[in-house]
Design goal:
By secondary structure, the protein is mainly alpha-helical. It contains 18 helices and no strands.
Length: 472
């Protein structure tokens, strides 16, 4: 429990110390925000700060900090280090600066920001890449909660697929304050409450957890090499490119820029804490007899771990919270993913989104593509895992583009660019190495993959140095 406790304290200090430093680097001011300057009653409108925080937290979290942390626990206590350092120095910086840049550029989405700083060619690539990623999120987060609901109710899974998909259509089309603004804070509160309850249980039980100084003693060798697999497995709890597609949704609802640190940086730190709690619970579950206590197998899937632990530790009420966390969270991430896709495409086509007819013109093709991916998911026994694995890599690749965009911004503004340059170099190397070593890509040996990693790092650094010198 010592490593766990120190990690919690580090995350809190990270928000108050490094978060303040990053805020001072950006320097928020009192200029009119897009919510005021471009108010349209659909996507641009002022919402209360606490509500924006709750929506932002739920949008970026979903089940990522739970499922990712559970799977990441198989890498041992190194998961603690990645959650803490990744969250403070990479993920929260990534989320804050991408959100604030969106505010400064009129609430535009990620491809527009990338195009402004990295050029139109990159913008077009990012447009396709981002929309496909968001559609994958929508497809994956229809089927997985539908399976769980089917098991719980004994109703046909396809019935729940249809119900969730209809909800997606309504939520994507409706003004942001009608559904998202009303029910998301409740689900976010449930997710936070569950994490706090689990945190309290950890300190009451005081189980023997693997410590950082134990080394690789408590690590499952089947999890793959720590580098780069850990940094792809735990994404939302440390850094996730998906977040940069969600931050503009809330950038369009902020009343003033100084709300940015608690909303963007703060939501990421909160997500890191949730990930840390579940990584610790999973370490107990996998390595210290936790599975025997809750009556489940060591080979249990992430949803099974959540349900088993929640019911055992929190009783019937815990089961309800688990239901909200495992079912509601992915659904809410799925619909905001499709909403982001709608707005990104509308910006590219210059379609005003106030008329419902123009919203439909964009949404119908998006829903058709999502339906096709969903059909692949259902028709193939391993369809979910295939889509999820590709999503995992694409998600972190998206963070690479975002971090390089932020680095270029900081260089141009003559600000301390090292705060994004180091994470950009690291994540570029992670994604390049994973592509080399992963069975879903080239499946090369770790020796060759690490040589490729070194080459990717040196190439990226060389590109930046050459570009930086050209700016002088």
């Amino acid at each position: 429990m010592v490593s766990f406790t120190l990690s919690l304290i580090a995350l809190l200090l990270g928000y108050f110390l490094y978060g303040r430093f990053v805020e001072n680097v950006f320097r928020p001011d009192n200029r009119p925000t897009p919510a005021i300057a471009k108010a349209d009653g659909v996507d641009f409108m002022v919402l209360p700060g606490w509500k924006i925080f709750m929506i932002q937290f739920l949008n970026i979290a979903g089940t990522g900090p739970i499922f990712g942390a559970i799977m990441g626990a198989k890498f041992g206590p190194s998961a603690y280090l990645w959650i803490v350092f990744g969250c403070i120095f990479a993920g929260a910086v990534h989320d804050y600066l991408s959100g604030m840049l969106s505010v400064r550029h009129g609430g535009v989405g990620l491809p527009e920001l990338v195009g402004y700083y990295l050029g139109n060619t990159t913008k077009k690539v990012m447009l396709i890449f981002t929309v496909l990623l968001l559609v994958m999120v929508g497809a994956v987060f229809v089927y997985s909660p539908a399976i769980i609901l089917g098991d719980l109710t004994q109703w046909n899974v396809m019935f729940w697929v249809a119900v969730i998909f209809v909800y997606y259509i309504i939520a994507t089309m409706m003004p942001i304050d009608k559904i998202i603004g009303r029910i998301y804070p409740l689900f976010a509160f449930s997710l936070i409450f569950m994490a706090v309850a689990m945190l309290a249980c950890l300190f009451v039980k005081m189980p023997h957890l693997p410590e950082i100084w134990d080394g690789l003693e408590n690590r499952n060798p089947t999890a793959g090499p720590i580098f780069p697999c850990l940094f792809i497995t735990i994404a939302c709890g440390a850094i996730s490119g998906f977040h940069a597609t969600q931050s503009p949704l809330m950038a369009r609802c902020m009343k003033h820029e100084k709300q940015g640190r608690p909303i963007f940086y703060g939501a990421m730190i909160t997500e890191g804490m949730v990930a840390l709690v579940w990584a610790s619970i999973s370490a107990y579950f996998f390595y210290d007899g936790g599975a025997a206590e809750v009556g489940s197998s060591l080979k249990a899937s992430a949803p099974q771990v959540v349900t088993a632990v929640s019911n055992s530790w929190l009783g019937t009420f815990g089961g309800i919270l688990a239901l909200l966390g495992v079912v509601a969270a992915p659904i809410t991430s799925g619909d905001t993913a499709l909403r982001s896709a709608r707005l990104i495409v509308s910006e590219f086509l210059h379609f005003d989104q106030k008329p419902i007819a123009k919203r439909l013109m964009i949404c119908i093709p998006l829903f058709i593509v999502t339906s096709l991916l969903l059909w692949f998911n259902i028709a193939n026994e391993d369809g979910f895992n295939v889509i999820w694995n590709y999503f995992g890599w694409a998600n972190q690749a998206l963070s690479v583009f975002t971090l390089w965009t932020l680095t270029v911004y900081l260089v141009r503004k003559k600000k301390p660019y090292v705060i994004t340059l180091i994470p950009a170099l690291f994540m570029t190397t992670v994604c390049g190495t994973f592509l080399a070593v992963s069975p879903i890509a080239f499946g090369l040996s770790t020796t060759i993959s690490y040589l490729i990693a070194a080459a990717v790092f040196l190439f990226s650094l060389g590109w930046f140095i050459k570009w930086y010198q050209a700016q002088k």
